[in-house]
Amino acid sequence: MARSTDCIAQKVKCFSVWCSSCFKQIHAPKHFNKLRKFDPKRIRQIVLTLDRKKIETGALAWQYVNDHKLIPGFIRNLQRGKKVFNKKTGTWEVLYPPIKISNWMWFLEWHKDGYPHWHLFIEVEKAGKAGMIGGDHIRHYWDIGRVRESYIRDKKHWNFLTGYFLKHGYFYHKKGKDHQTKLPKWALNDIHLKIRRTGRKAKARAEHSELKVIPPKPQLIDPITGEIFTPKRRVKQTAYKVLFKKCGSQTRVTISNGRMVFIGTTNIPYKEIRDTVTGAYQEKLGYTFNASNKLLDIIIKNLVRVEYYNGDLGKIGQRLNRWEYYRMRQGEDAYKCVYG
After folding, report:
1. I need a surface site. Which of 94, 111, 236, 265 has the fewest CB within 10 A?
2. pTM across the whole model
3. Among 220, 303, 230, 212, which Cα is nearest to 262's?
4. Is the backbone of residue 4 left (phi > 0), alpha (psi -120 to 50) or beta?
5. pLDDT (tens digit, 9 = 90+) per residue, 240-252?
């Protein structure tokens, strides 16, 4: 893509598009906002690890915890508490009192050897030392590895902890620990593997006073047999290694000139735009530059998705209409990939 000198009023803002499964924590701001709703005075942070002697590999360790839903089960056990029968007195006694938990959230990180560990944040009823759960209590319900419980000293400590996570994507604030957000080698080539980066307390389902109207599924007519059928959506399974190679290969662009706004994704790599187009990077806005007609033609020609456009699009609108007509001729599935 050649550098353009014929600049016009169209202002373009762009930033790199990362694959949705990327562990470089592109969703950190969203998780950061959820964490900041916790009350720092009532938070207990628990680090859950796995014993290498009990589980042979990191892959088996992650699979075991995931398949058995051990973290939600761990939370339920803390909330339930435990009683034991005293044979001497003939009565039931409380061994571990139930913990009142108003909210919780976990984050998955990795050790260098490919074993997982989890940072679990629990918002309890009582503040400070009174809210401590206790090592024996925690180990009773997590007997497959070491645990560590800590608390938030004050609001400054909480702001630092969450702020560090927002910037780096992990919680352990020491140099050389960025491997904690990188997938281990065993997870890169399995196309069936889906690894969640975080999880939290499920929201209660709201009662709906009105019946939801579910739109009918799209139907097509087979041109040969004349039969009406509902197309099945194809879901392509891809290994993380392949997805990571695609990271940054597309660019999300916003084009505006005061009379119109257009937002979409183009197939031009972000690095290529940065290297060939003169502009300036603005925090939270992305790379910004003025675009010529020639450059706009290149961007629109390489569009792969349209998110939004409004206003007096002028020549851009003509280009978009021609491009949309081209997608319609490719068929409903191709059209919905872009406009769905």
Report:
1. 236
2. 0.60
3. 303
4. beta
5. 566 566 666 788 8
**Which tens digit of pLDDT belongs to each residue from 102-160?**
999 999 888 888 899 999 999 999 998 899 999 999 999 999 999 999 998 888 888 88
Question: What value does the CA radius of gyration of the chain take, rounded to a whole number of Å?
Answer: 26
